[in-house]
Design brief:
This protein is of the alpha/beta class. It folds into two domains: about 240 residues, 3-Layer(aba) Sandwich (Rossmann fold), CATH 3.40.50; about 250 residues, 3-Layer(aba) Sandwich (Rossmann fold), CATH 3.40.50. Helix content is about 35%, strand content about 25%. It has a seven-stranded mixed β-sheet with strand order 1-11-10-4-9-8-7, sandwiched between helices. Strands 17-20-21-14-22-23 form a six-stranded mixed β-sheet, with helices on both faces. A four-stranded antiparallel β-sheet has the order 3-2-5-6, covered by helices on one side. The N and C termini lie far apart (about 60 Å).
Length: about 525
């Protein structure tokens, strides 16, 4: 293992020989992790490398089977997150743990509310405490507003304030930039640097290597349950980190050749779609996708992307408008009818729309083709053909473990995604509806899927790509449509713009203002 020397007297966290065994999976294999006081320490690794398991052990959610944990030199035996919190550890989870109908103040003090006489919640005192903490760390947010009424960037500040209110000196941030615009990410980094200057220790879990280089002082790389490198960030680079992660050289960004798109294969006209609250989420949208073209949709989560994708896939009935696929209006058709017209769909919610957890992998690979030759004959499934197909896809897409008999629900999230992507690409579609294709995937799998999607594009498949990852949208798209509150704010080509311009449009500024400035 590559490891830099550490001063044991300056350690905030010292995890030694940590072992965690799950059924058939050794998640942590005698892991050592040492984090210096006052540093920003990044942890990167493939899916299944053991990062989340290790952090869940540190936060008291799991108990290790072996090994020791020391916090600021003191030996600890955490039985629950409360024990970790009492030792000054706070964790901001990737999926926010907030109560939407409650105010910012109520969320921050929940479980540790200041009380007046007769044990009545003292909201004014709570609001005062929240204001003091937010001002100290430049985490400004209105303490009286409801969580459901603030953007995701502000919600994340609330999550960080929750940990600080509980006295955290050590903060664990799990994929903290997954739902942020570039501008919100930079603001978060400013907050983290301020926290560091106030003596806080930060553990930063991410799969974005450019963020590792931008924000961390030290980086630990995990692979197959072990730490393979622990080095100062200033002494490494993204390519080297990627190699430590997957054990080989990795192409960090795919290159695509310019090509002329073919005929129009999908056209959306004046589409209006309501969300689950019966509010208009997609507002009179119009655009087209041509054969051999990837059209990317860039935007912060919750701006109509989900409703747009579901309407095209037949999972949600549009309020009005038309969706033309191969010359037929598919608005209102069911998913099976739409798939038979040549559209394959990689949904953003794999457990809700793409995977049946109690089914084995080979049946999950079959979904959508269970009544088609060579997988069915005279109403009976042809298991030899099904198994051959599933084994081929598991091998090609490196789905782990390499067993087609394992239940879909027993795969890790990243490997579930690989199986779904494999199935949808193998359909030989005319057009692909691709939502968050690499969510939860490690860098090696991302590389493979990006290359595969570009191969589909080069084979004249049209593609609508919806992704929260701007790097992904820029890397793959021929055209980028920026969406905000259900409206297209502008259309740009990736080679003619940059993250900053697109980020401003994602925040609700029309393209005309971004490019020329407000009048």
């Amino acid at each position: 293992m590559v490891e830099a020397p550490v001063n044991p007297n300056h350690l905030a966290i010292d995890m030694a020989g940590i072992v965690k065994q799950f059924p058939k999976v050794l998640a942590n294999d005698h892991v050592d992790l040492r984090v210096q006081k006052g540093e920003i320490h990044a942890i990167v690794g493939e899916n299944g490398a053991g990062k989340s398991t290790l952090m869940n052990i540190l936060y008291g959610l799991y108990k290790p089977d072996d090994g020791t944990i020391r916090v600021n030199g003191a030996l600890c035996d955490f039985q629950s997150p409360n024990d970790a919190i009492h030792k000054g550890i706070g964790m901001v989870h990737q999926h926010f743990m907030l109560v939407p109908p409650l105010t910012v103040t109520e969320n921050i003090v929940l479980g540790m509310e200041p009380l007046k006489k007769l044990k009545v919640f003292d909201f004014q005192k709570a609001k005062k405490l929240v204001k003091e903490i937010s001002q100290k760390y430049n985490l400004f947010v209105d303490p009286t507003v409801k969580i459901e009424d603030i953007p995701v960037g502000a919600q994340q500040r609330v999550e960080i304030l929750k940990t600080l209110y509980r006295g955290a000196d050590i903060l664990i941030l799990d994929e903290p930039t997954a739902v942020l615009t570039p501008q919100e990410t930079e603001k978060l980094f400013e907050v983290l640097r301020l926290l560091q200057s106030n003596g806080k220790t930060i553990i930063f879990i991410t799969h974005k290597l450019n963020e590792v280089m931008a924000i961390s002082n030290q980086v630990s790389v995990m692979r197959q349950g072990k730490v393979t490198a622990n080095i100062p960030t200033s002494q490494t680079n993204p390519r080297e980190l990627a190699k430590y992660m997957v054990g080989r050289e990795v192409l960090l960004r795919v290159s695509k050749k310019a090509r002329d798109p073919g005929k129009e294969v999908m056209k959306v006209e004046n589409l209006r779609v309501l969300d689950n609250r019966k509010l208009e989420a997609v507002k009179n949208l119009s655009f087209s996708v041509c054969a051999g073209e990837i059209v990317g949709i860039a935007g912060v989560a919750g701006n109509g992307q989900t409703e747009l994708v579901e309407a095209i896939a037949g999972l949600r009935k549009p309020q009005s408008g038309k969706i033309w696929l191969q010359g037929s209006d598919i608005a209102g058709l069911n998913p099976k009818e739409i798939r038979e017209l040549g559209l394959s769909h990689i949904p953003e919610d794999r457990l809700k729309h793409a995977l049946i957890k109690p089914f084995p992998v080979f049946y999950n690979m079959l979904l959508g083709r269970h009544d088609q030759s060579p997988f069915a004959k005279h109403g009976f499934l042809q298991h030899k053909s099904i198994h051959n197909m599933a084994n081929r896809l598991v091998e090609a897409f490196d789905v782990r473990p390499k067993s087609i008999d394992i239940l879909g629900g027993n795969l890790s999230g990243g490997n579930q995604q690989k199986a779904i992507v494999a199935r949808e690409i193998d359909m030989n579609p005319t057009i692909m509806l691709v939502a968050q294709p690499t969510r939860g995937l490690d860098i090696g799998a991302i590389e493979y899927i990006h290359k595969t999607l570009l191969e589909m594009r080069n084979s004249d498949v049209g593609m609508l790509l919806v992704s929260m990852e701007l790097e992904e949208v820029f890397s793959l798209s021929d055209r980028i449509l920026v969406i905000y509150e259900g409206t297209i704010m502008g259309e740009v080509r990736p080679e003619e713009t940059n993250f900053e311009e697109v980020g401003y449009m994602m925040a609700g500024n029309p393209a005309s203002e971004v490019l020329t400035g407000p009048s």
